[in-house]
Specification:
By secondary structure, the protein is α/β, with parallel strands linked by helices. Helices cover about 35% and strands about 20% of the residues. It has a four-stranded parallel sheet with strand order 1-6-5-2, sandwiched between helices. It has a two-stranded antiparallel sheet with strand order 3-4.
């Protein structure tokens, strides 16, 4: 399902603005480390079904097709995607072995080709096998990710994080914080889909 505006310029969630603000109230009161986030689709209906089939039924070809749609949607939105490297959100090695592929990496490849930005998987690694984020509330999601990632040399780099689903933003925010603490200059985030807020 395509997203309809207005969209928060920080987290990318649709919201109803009463004062023509460009940033939603949640982002104004939260400690967000990434520069901006944008998603191509709402995490619902057919998109949700395809994402789940790809991840949990080892359907690599679905991720490949979704990656093409992702890149096309960003291009159609006239997204100004620039940076030094695209960094897919990594899986823990045990999960990567079990699944056989990282869906974020597959989604990133068409974006890399479309916007001519190289992928650098080695810059971010998942070093702790955490419980699934989907089983936790917003506070639990943040606590679950403490110390879960490590990063390489990102000094003076403008980085672009790519993932399949943006829910609370805890994963991307944790990764952005780590990258900035290691002297990255800026972190932008893009997701195939975004889970719409219920309120």
């Amino acid at each position: 399902m395509p997203l309809s505006g207005p969209l928060c310029e920080k987290c990318g969630h649709p919201y109803i603005s009463q004062i023509a603000a460009t940033v939603c109230p949640s982002c104004k009161s939260s400690n967000t480390h990434f520069n901006k986030h944008s998603a191509a689709f709402a995490y619902a209906d057919t998109v949700r079904e395809l994402v789940l089939n790809s991840k949990y039924h080892s359907q690599r070809q679905i991720s490949q097709g979704l990656g093409e749609l992702f890149a096309a949607a960003l291009k159609a939105k006239n997204a100004k995607i620039t940076g030094d490297f695209i960094v897919p959100i990594p899986l823990h090695p045990s999960k990567l072995r079990s699944r056989g592929f990282n869906q974020a990496t597959i989604l990133a490849k068409p974006i890399s080709a479309t916007f001519n930005i190289p992928i650098a998987e080695h810059l971010l690694k998942r070093i702790i096998k955490t419980v699934p984020q989907s089983s936790l509330d917003s506070v639990g999601r943040e606590e679950n990710l403490v110390g879960a990632f490590s990063c390489g040399d990102v000094a003076n780099k403008h980085l672009i994080l790519i993932d399949d689903i943006f829910t609370t933003g805890a994963t991307m925010n944790t990764c952005a914080k780590l990258l900035l603490e290691n002297s990255a200059t800026m972190v932008d985030c893009y997701s195939l889909s975004i889970a719409l807020k219920k309120d």
